[in-house]
Specification:
about 400 residues, alpha+beta, tt1808, chain A, 3 domains, six-stranded mixed beta sheet, two-stranded antiparallel ribbon
């Protein structure tokens, strides 16, 4: 057995003894989530080889997830900047079988394009696979390991080590032992849905607005404006900046059959008045007729995929959305007798300059333009507060 394994086992044994002492003294319930992380969970994963205190000389890191909403998990475990698994930490004695915790953790990992997520209060470590397509989220459970079993089942616990993820050990075992179908990756699912919404909306507008002499370009712009508005609103909702007004209007229409597009226009007006975004200013799209049934399919589809997964736009990376838009906009809209049809064209993409600029490139540009201007005292009062 390697020295690395022996050292890991020794450190984990010390944590087990520490926990037993805390329990013996009746201090377990004094531990909240933060103290549980500090005293037990982070030391456990440090013993498994992770750079939990982020030594910049190493190629791995453990970063707290940005709190864009209460739906985020606690930590991302990365190697060379790529998330290998997410971890949701709970306090000692917290019930890890709470369906809310499980759904939150699995959905977050799925929307981040990551297969693995861990839910733990130290007393129990539960490993889930976010990519498995299951009827019940409990079926996404891969392993459950009690702290009393950490040493007896060390080989399974070691699957969460940095070394294991460097060797893809957990993926290999899962593929060999767990023959479960996988969900469509989030980027592929979004692209398929966005393309479907675009074609569905285009055909419906052509069908209902035949008397309007609308060109292909105007049709494309109107469709894109509506979809951009809906996606902007869904982002605000999932970031908990706004209530779920779209869903409320959809449910109101389902019960009362009040004109859905008219109700949605009220939301557009609200966003136009409260957000500095040109996409909500008056345009051709506001003058067109759209069937409520068509609009309902699109709105419902922005909350839930066909396989029953819920979309969480607050967890979807900007780069994922950007790459989707790049592919999605490379399709040309062509009117025909039946309405409109999308056709992929790489030539159109090249002519129109439809290429997404990755976040790291944007950061580089900002660092070498805006930041340099700030350094040169163009905005001296802001200099101490600038951080990129």
């Amino acid at each position: 057995m390697s020295d690395k394994i022996e050292i890991a086992k020794q450190r984990i044994q010390e944590l087990i003894e520490k926990y037993n002492q805390v329990e013996k003294e009746g201090r377990v319930y004094r531990y909240n989530e933060e103290t549980t992380k500090k005293d037990f969970i982070l030391p456990l994963f440090e013993a498994l080889g992770w750079n939990v205190y982020n030594d910049l000389r190493r190629n791995d890191s453990v970063s707290a997830e940005e709190k864009v909403s209460r739906k985020r998990v606690d930590y991302s475990f990365k190697i060379n900047g790529i998330s290998k698994f997410f971890l949701e930490a709970k306090s000692l004695k917290e019930d890890l079988n709470n369906p809310k915790y499980i759904e939150q953790a699995i959905n977050y990992a799925y929307h981040k394009g990551c297969a693995w997520v861990v839910l733990t209060n130290f007393e129990t470590v539960v490993i889930y696979n976010a990519e498995w397509k299951t009827i019940n989220l409990q079926q996404n459970r891969f392993r459950t390991i009690s702290y009393k079993e950490f040493l007896d089942r060390f080989d399974e616990l070691w699957l969460l080590s940095k070394e294991s993820f460097e060797n893809n050990a957990i993926d290999k075992i899962a593929e060999k032992l767990e023959k479960k179908p996988k969900k469509t990756p989030i980027d592929e699912q979004l692209l398929a849905d966005f393309t479907r919404f675009r074609e569905l909306l285009s055909k419906n507008i052509v069908k209902l607005n035949r008397r309007t002499d609308i060109t292909e370009q105007e049709l494309d712009e109107a469709v894109q404006r509506i979809l951009d508005r809906l996606i902007f609103i869904r982002n605000c909702e999932d970031r908990e900046l706004e209530e779920k007004k779209l869903l409320a209007k959809l449910r109101e229409w389902e019960t009362s059959k009040k004109h859905l597009f008219g109700s949605i226009k009220e939301i557009f007006k609200y966003y136009d008045e409260n957000y500095d975004s040109k996409i909500f200013s008056q345009s051709l799209c506001d003058q067109l007729e759209i069937e409520d049934e068509t609009l309902s399919i699109i709105i419902r589809g922005l909350y839930e995929t066909k396989d029953g997964s819920s979309y969480d736009f607050s967890a979807i990376e900007a780069d994922v959305l950007g790459n989707i838009y790049e592919q999605y906009l490379s399709h040309i809209l062509r009117k025909n007798e039946k309405g409109a049809k999308l056709k992929e064209s790489q030539a159109h993409r090249k002519e129109q300059g439809i290429y997404y600029t990755p976040t790291y490139v944007v950061d580089f540009i900002v660092r070498n333009t805006v930041l340099e201007l700030l350094k040169n005292d163009i905005l001296p009062g802001l200099k101490p507060w600038v951080s990129f």
